[in-house]
């Protein structure tokens, strides 16, 4: 589990097809230091380091991960958000994030609002039940609060520190982002579905 508090950005060093999946090599920029078998959140996707060295690690992406995320499509040199998993007893200043991306969305609009930035994202099919104003959502692994819901879009306000620490600083209209709902919203939606059965 993660807190959605991105440590900073690493860089894609290598990206190759590997059997039925894909393999990534990531320069960690000294932000995370995984050992073999450790997990790392890479732009919101929980990946397991199966090779690692000083300042880098490699991870295999299964077919499902390739299909559900945009990681395999990133070019060499692309920046990715990095976060180490929570340690037992560590405080959660964001919200619990599992690293299991539910949907891929795209940036619909960005706006400098002086005290920070406003980002709008499209709402993918089936994702709307997990969104609520003032509720939490993970965008590329970053814990953010929904500030507005309007039609097929939702908006978040991003403080300058978060924008500079994450790949949001490089995102523009049409760029993809990973979405993961607040696990509480997922649980409530599941219970409601069971109640209707």
Automatic annotation (TrEMBL):
<feature type="domain" description="Lumazine-binding">
    <location>
        <begin position="1"/>
        <end position="95"/>
    </location>
</feature>
<dbReference type="InterPro" id="IPR001783">
    <property type="entry name" value="Lumazine-bd"/>
</dbReference>
<dbReference type="GO" id="GO:0009231">
    <property type="term" value="P:riboflavin biosynthetic process"/>
</dbReference>
<protein>
    <submittedName>
        <fullName>Riboflavin synthase alpha chain</fullName>
    </submittedName>
</protein>
<feature type="domain" description="Lumazine-binding">
    <location>
        <begin position="96"/>
        <end position="192"/>
    </location>
</feature>
<dbReference type="Pfam" id="PF00677">
    <property type="entry name" value="Lum_binding"/>
</dbReference>
<feature type="repeat" description="Lumazine-binding">
    <location>
        <begin position="1"/>
        <end position="95"/>
    </location>
</feature>
<dbReference type="InterPro" id="IPR026017">
    <property type="entry name" value="Lumazine-bd_dom"/>
</dbReference>
<dbReference type="InterPro" id="IPR023366">
    <property type="entry name" value="ATP_synth_asu-like_sf"/>
</dbReference>
<keyword id="KW-0677">Repeat</keyword>
<feature type="repeat" description="Lumazine-binding">
    <location>
        <begin position="96"/>
        <end position="192"/>
    </location>
</feature>
<dbReference type="GO" id="GO:0004746">
    <property type="term" value="F:riboflavin synthase activity"/>
</dbReference>
<dbReference type="InterPro" id="IPR017938">
    <property type="entry name" value="Riboflavin_synthase-like_b-brl"/>
</dbReference>
């Amino acid at each position: 589990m993660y807190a959605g508090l991105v440590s900073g950005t690493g860089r894609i060093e290598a990206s190759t097809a590997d059997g039925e999946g894909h393999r990534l090599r990531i320069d960690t920029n000294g932000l995370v230091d995984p050992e073999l078998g450790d997990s790392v959140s890479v732009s919101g996707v929980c990946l397991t380091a199966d090779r690692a060295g000083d300042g880098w690690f490699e991870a295999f992406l299964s077919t499902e991960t390739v299909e559900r995320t945009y990681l395999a499509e990133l070019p060499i040199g692309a920046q990715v958000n990095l976060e180490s998993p929570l340690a037992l007893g560590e405080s959660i200043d964001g919200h619990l994030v599992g690293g299991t991306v539910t949907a891929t969305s795209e940036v619909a609009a960005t706006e400098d609002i002086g005290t920070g930035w406003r980002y709008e994202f499209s709402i993918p099919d089936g994702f709307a039940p997990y969104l609520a104003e003032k509720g939490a959502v993970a965008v590329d692994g970053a814990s953010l609060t929904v500030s507005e819901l309007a039609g097929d879009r939702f908006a978040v306000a991003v403080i300058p520190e978060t924008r500079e620490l994450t790949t949001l600083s490089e995102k523009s209209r049409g760029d993809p982002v990973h979405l993961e709902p607040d696990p509480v919203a997922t649980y409530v939606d599941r219970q409601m579905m069971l109640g209707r059965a």
